[in-house]
Amino acid sequence: MTAQIMTRPRPDEAEPEGANRRLGQHLLDVVRRQDAAVPAGRRAPRTVAEMRARLAAVSAAQEDVCPVCEYWQCRCGRPAAAVVPAAGGTVTA
After folding, report:
1. What is the pTM assigned to this prediction?
2. What are the distances in angstroms from CA 17 to CA 10, 14, 26, 31, 32?
3. Which of 11, 38, 44, 60 is found 20 to 30 A from 66 (Cα to Cα)?
């Protein structure tokens, strides 16, 4: 009987690897289910491609901003064509 006890793996050596793997799989499943429940427009970008696409959309939207008042719908009443940037890159009116 002593030989059987000596050859048995210790519980803290054999079991944690399997338990950690099961816990990791469970957490991954929970995260995927929660991500699927979030509407696409509210989902945070997780990959570099998603982040670059979101930054490209923001920079494209900023091109439509009035250079004088910096609103998308101009509140200063001056047409954007009348505002000409100076050589130094600043806006002159």
Report:
1. 0.37
2. 12, 7, 14, 21, 23
3. 44
**93: number of Cβ within 10 Å:** 9
Quote the pLDDT of residue 24: 94
- Give residue-wise pLDDT tens across range 52-92: 988 888 777 667 777 777 777 777 776 655 555 555 555 55
Q: Is 72 exposed, middle or buried (0-12, 13-18, 19+ CB in 10 A)?
A: exposed
CB 51 within 8 A of CB 45: yes
Name the DSSP class of 42.
Answer: G
b/e 35-64 (16+ beta carbons within 10 angstroms → b): eeeeeeeeeeeeeeeeeeeeeeeeeeeeee
> With contact defined as beta carbons under 8 Å apart, do 2 and 10 qualify?
no
- What is the DSSP-derived secondary structure letter of residue 92? E
